[in-house]
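Inputs:
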Amino acid sequence: MFVRARQDPVLTLHEEPAEAEVVSHRLMLRAGFIKKLAGGVYSFLPMGVRALRKIEGIVREEMSRAGALEVLLPALQPSDLWERTGRWDKYGKELFRLSDRHDRPFALGPTHEEVVTDLISQTVHSYRQLPVLIYQIQTKFRDEIRPRFGLLRGREFVMKDAYSFSADEDDARRIYGIMQESYARIFRRIGLDSRMVEADSGLIGGNLSHEFMILAASGEDTVLICEKCSWAANVEKEPDALACPKCGGPVSSKTAIEVGHVFYLGHKYSVPMEAAFLDKEGKEIPFYMGCYGIGVSRLLAAALEQSHDEQGMVWPPAIAPFRVSVLTLGPGMADRPEVQEAIRTLEDLWGEDVYIDDRDLRPGIKFQDADLRGFPYQVILGERNVAQGQAEIKIRRSGERLIVTLDSLAIALSDLYESDTQD
RNA sequence: CGGGGCGUGGCGCAGCCCGGUAGCGCACCUGCUUUGGGAGCAGGGAGUCGGAGGUUCAAAUCCUCUCGCCCCGACCA
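Outputs:
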């Protein structure tokens, strides 16, 4: 079933909210995708949650392709788990802490190494059960020193986190490689220009890690990129690199948004938590671990940082909240039999991805809203075209307009989408 | 945590310096006209001026404390 504009109570704003600085934040507030509840804490409105679900969908497909199984771990975590790795103290003020009615301390999970290591240590006892690769998509909590830029740095955010458990280092590194490829594929499918860089491991730990970066002016990270070979690194990792350590070529520095991070962990968590399995000889061996994160809600904002114009959002077709918005112009247009028939063919094609703006408003407002919200395609049904059995398709990204017959509308859109999303 | 800025109908703001019945634009509601790029006219609803305390005959306005929000920095996935 398609979605009608009249079902959504959210209004777009004509004026820019004063609280927003960066473009993605401004656009999401203005277009009614999110609404702030507190600093770094946002509600996702119908448009926003749809785009979020699109990203999640792609992530799930690619995790599945990589051989990962989905789980859902608790956000509420008892402190003793965190004490076993020493992170109850080390994580500091960024960890949201609370107590239950018996004064037992808990944390709201900022990440899940402890929980998942505990889970697997209780579940996996033999090398025969390895390797294990599991992931979840879940809300994370971090009491950031300074939340900012809307979804780019929140205190509550949606993250995909995956964890691998292997019997030896070679296998752990093999999975690390699979996840690197998977991540590159995810960002490509979403329609983003991403770059993998060598990174510092920070509090998560381990001694091998790579970040996936979206180049954008508003980025909080700085990456060094070799202009000759494929080498690239976070400046935190190579603070003094004046030339490429691989080929000696010149490096340039660019600001970027971190949207993914993969870590080789080794025994960092399995040893302190005594998480081990029995090998062929019956000997107890700690798991060789890896962990792999994607900032799902941050990706939404990062996509907009990379894809917008003066009129508003320009969603990559794969993650747009709706693939097409149908604008009926003038009173009665939405009720015409030939218009309803055309909409039915779109519904057969794309179902819920069809947004019908059948509001009884002046055309200008509908055009502005459709442009602001950045649906990839607009189907414009006005008297001048419908009277001749035709419709106009506007391609948001290029501004290009096509006239097609109502009968061929679905085919034309299907072709456009295919050519816009192929790798 | 240091520095700067800001809290007044849903959004954007004025009023504060110099105390005296809370205002403008947009949005919203009703009616009529209008309908291919944010319409026009007429009418209407909506704000304990972030909160607490104080000064005063009288506080959005002056004083004290406090909470929240935004930006820069330090810090950090």
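Remarks. Chain A has eleven helices and 24 strands. The first helix of chain A runs from residue 23 to 30.
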